[in-house]
Design brief:
This protein has 258 residues and is of the alpha/beta class. The protein has helices at 5-16, 19-35, 46-60, 73-83, 88-99, 104-111, 115-130, 144-156, 168-177, 195-203, 238-250, 253-256, and strands at residues 136-140, 160-165, 182-186, 210-214, 230-233. The chain is 54% helix and 10% strand. Helix 2 (19-35) crosses helix 3. The model is unreliable at 62-74, 77-86 and 254-258 (pLDDT under 50). This is DNA-directed RNA polymerase specialized sigma24 family protein.
Length: 258
């Protein structure tokens, strides 16, 4: 079960839009397993069982009494402005399949629906994404082919790419020149500088949602320091990037209230 925890934390954060809030759900999941180990699903693999317990806790809770709810309540309130347009279940189906890589059958097991219903929910979520508020996007990526691929995905979603930066210095300069509404950042940059440091520099100037892209996501999901809310694993699928972008903007105040 332990190897699957970093990725459950990634899913929880993407679903809630918050590190603290997502981690609180994961903590509640682990506490439930410890309290009643006999209820852990025995007929599926450990990863499916772990996510199934998490889904049960998520679906049975409410905004006003969710575990750990408090410090970032305004972010959840922001999300309410869009819940009428993109309901929780379609978002769960999209994130489970696009971000976490579950098949429609496995996702259906997790949320208690047939595979065909999962596919319909994913299509519903994708349709809602098409109507999402457009944003200006800064890409921080030093690999030209990957940068071009990300740029194409961003533009296909209807967003504007303000710049593609390849170093920490470039990233900060471009962000200050034209403030983006979203940042997509690689970890290792061209001059051996860090995308994490670039993002920290940018965030000292203004708030903006960030999606990190890395070949080693487990290194950023250790629980030992502040970690990214949105994280994409390389090599990535186009659907994964689309889902992460949509979810990051879903929870962003500027786009939610536009």
């Amino acid at each position: 079960m332990h190897p699957h925890l970093p990725f459950l934390r990634r899913y929880a954060r993407a679903l809630t839009g918050s590190q603290a809030h997502g981690d609180a759900y994961v903590r509640a999941t682990l506490e439930a397993i410890v309290a009643a180990p006999e209820e852990f699903p025995a007929d599926v693999d450990a990863r499916l069982g772990l996510y199934r317990i998490f889904q049960a806790i998520w679906s049975s809770s409410h905004v006003e009494d969710e575990p750990g709810f408090g410090g970032d309540a305004p972010r959840e309130a922001i999300a309410q402005a869009r819940l009428s347009r993109l309901t929780p279940l379609p978002r769960q189906a999209l994130l489970l399949t696009a971000l976490e890589g579950f098949t429609p059958e496995d996702a259906g097991y997790l949320i208690g629906l047939p595979a065909e219903d999962v596919e319909a929910l994913v299509n519903e979520a994708l349709a809602e994404i098409e109507a999402q508020t457009r944003a200006k996007v800064l890409i921080i990526e030093d690999e030209p082919i990957i940068a071009m691929d990300i740029e194409t995905i961003v533009r296909d979603l209807g967003h504007e790419v303000t710049a593609i930066a390849v170093t920490r210095e470039d990233a900060v300069r471009e962000a200050m020149a034209e403030r983006p509404g979203l940042v997509l950042a690689d970890i290792q940059l061209a001059d051996d500088s860090s995308g994490i440091d670039a993002v920290k520099d940018i965030l000292t100037e203004f708030a903006v949602p960030v999606i990190f892209i890395t070949a080693f996501p487990e290194r950023l999901l250790t629980g030992e320091r502040p970690e990214p809310t949105f994280l994409i694993t390389k090599p990535f699928q186009r659907a994964t990037v689309k889902a992460a972008i949509a979810q990051a903007l879903f929870f962003d105040e500027a786009t939610a209230l536009a």
